[in-house]
UniProtKB/TrEMBL annotation:
Organism lineage: Eukaryota, Fungi, Dikarya, Ascomycota, Pezizomycotina
Any Pfam family: Acyl-CoA_dh_2
Boundaries of every Acyl-CoA dehydrogenase C-terminal domain copy: 266-407
Gene Ontology molecular functions: 3-methylbutanoyl-CoA dehydrogenase activity; flavin adenine dinucleotide binding
The Acyl-CoA dehydrogenase/oxidase N-terminal domain, residue ranges: 43-136
Protein name in the entry: Acyl-CoA dehydrogenase/oxidase
Keyword presence, Acyltransferase: no
Length: 433
């Protein structure tokens, strides 16, 4: 019998060869945090040249991932002994923000990779953390994920040797262009027990839908994936006792693994801020070169850059973005303190310390969302009607932030912060807190 099933076809991919020159140009990696942020800025400058055109083309971002690989930014958090930059999360967050100024999609791809590449350090045991870090960093692998909590969990069956994942995920950011993919699922007969595992992406059991065609962040390959009988050995079940086939209480029975959630929430806020700052910088150049003064206001100016309302708007946006960045940096510093203190003493982390950091992160999420949406929409008021032309590409900044800020409702972050400040309640760890 002939099947009528439609097999998803991979979209046209961007060509990695267009960035080949940077493999040798960036062959030497930076030695300190300042150098890594300079490298991130260089990547943003390369991407900004044709960001609007690439976004319209909506090709699978293989070239963009290749550029990240050439830059070394995929390794910025990894240990030096495996070829990494050995930088703290605060530098990683700032690098995400910097890249997002030039291209929000690529900033998001970098952010998700940095989170997934460190997953074993948060939810795995020491042996798993070391083994996967060596695998990822020494090979310069890009890591994607299929861990969207709003979907039904992947179902896990198991035998004495392995765990096997089956199911479908609607959102798998970066996974279609990844080397490794993080899977998460629930054991079929014990649905309260979840397992993370990292597996090779290119295998028969993983089929990508290539259906990401949303209004923003169009180059993130965030579409769905079907997972069919994809197995990992018990030794790769992160945080589980492979012999006992049970979660290791010393790894998963403590607050430390729940740090994965505020870690990624702060990733989100940093690429929101990068996109918003990129919008302001783009608009600034446009206003200075193309916006005309309004001739019917009664206080006519020769240049748009002398208009009171334009100066006032830019000044106000700049002040709010500076404040948001300072808040994000404060939360990033707290990430460094938490991970620096407890990575080797995981049992020492208290629910209170975890909760206090989560509320720093929630504060950034609220401010970055409010400010990012306001700035990326508001820049049209100071650039003028002609700035809405498709060829200008100013709209991509708003579309990018609007798309991802719907990931989880910021209203719940406001409520969470309200309970924290009014009732002194720390949030219960969830998939989004």
């Amino acid at each position: 019998m002939t099947s009528n099933a439609v097999v998803p076809q991979a979209p046209t991919s961007s060509d990695p060869a267009v960035y080949q020159e940077y493999e040798s140009k960036w062959a030497t990696y930076p030695s300190d945090g300042e150098g890594w942020l300079k490298r991130a800025k260089e990547v943003a400058e390369v991407l900004a040249v044709d960001a609007a055109a690439r976004e319209k083309a909506n090709k699978s971002p293989r070239a963009e991932v290749a550029l990240l690989k050439h830059s070394g930014l995929l390794k910025v958090l990894g240990p030096k002994k495996h070829g990494g930059g050995e930088q703290p999360w605060s530098v990683g967050y700032k690098a995400i923000r910097e890249v997002a100024k030039g291209d929000g999609s690529v900033g998001m791809l970098l952010g998700y990779h940095l989170l997934w590449s460190r997953t074993a350090h948060v939810v795995g045991n020491d042996e798993q953390a070391e083994r996967f870090q060596e695998l990822i960093i020494s090979n310069n692998y890009y890591v994607g994920g299929a861990v969207n909590p709003r979907d039904s969990d992947l179902k896990i069956t198991y035998d004495d040797d392995k765990v096997t994942f089956d199911g479908f995920k609607n959102f798998t950011t970066g996974a279609a262009v990844s080397d490794l993919i993080v899977l998460e699922g629930a054991i079929h007969d014990r649905p309260e027990e979840h397992i993370f595992a990292i597996v090779p992406t290119r295998q028969a059991g993983i089929t990508f839908s290539h259906n990401w065609d949303n209004i923003g962040l169009r180059l993130t390959e965030s579409g769905g994936a079907k997972i069919e009988k994809v197995s990992a050995p018990w030794a790769d079940a992160l945080g589980w006792d492979a012999a006992a086939k049970k979660p290791d209480p010393a790894v998963l029975g403590i607050p430390f693994p729940s740090l994965l959630l505020p870690t990624i929430q702060l990733v989100f806020s940093n690429f929101y801020l990068g996109i918003a700052i990129g919008a302001l910088e783009f608009a600034k150049r446009y206003t200075a070169t193309s916006t005309r003064a309004w001739p019917f206001g009664g206080d006519n100016k020769e240049k748009a850059t002398d208009e009171f309302y334009i100066l006032q708007t830019y000044g106000n946006f700049f002040a709010h973005l500076r404040a948001a960045e300072a808040l994000a940096d404060r939360a990033g510093d707290e990430a460094d303190r938490i991970f620096g203190k407890y990575q080797d003493d995981r049992a020492g982390l208290t629910p209170r310390e975890r909760g206090d950091w989560a509320e720093w992160v929630a504060s950034v999420k609220v401010v970055a969302t409010d400010t990012g949406l306001r700035v990326t929409a508001g820049v049209f008021e100071v650039t003028g009607a002609r700035a809405t032309a498709s060829k200008v590409g100013l709209d991509r900044f708003f579309r990018d932030i609007r798309t991802h800020t719907l990931h989880d409702p910021v209203a719940y972050k406001n409520r969470e912060l309200g309970r924290y400040v009014l009732l002194d309640e720390i949030p219960e760890p969830t998939w989004y807190t």
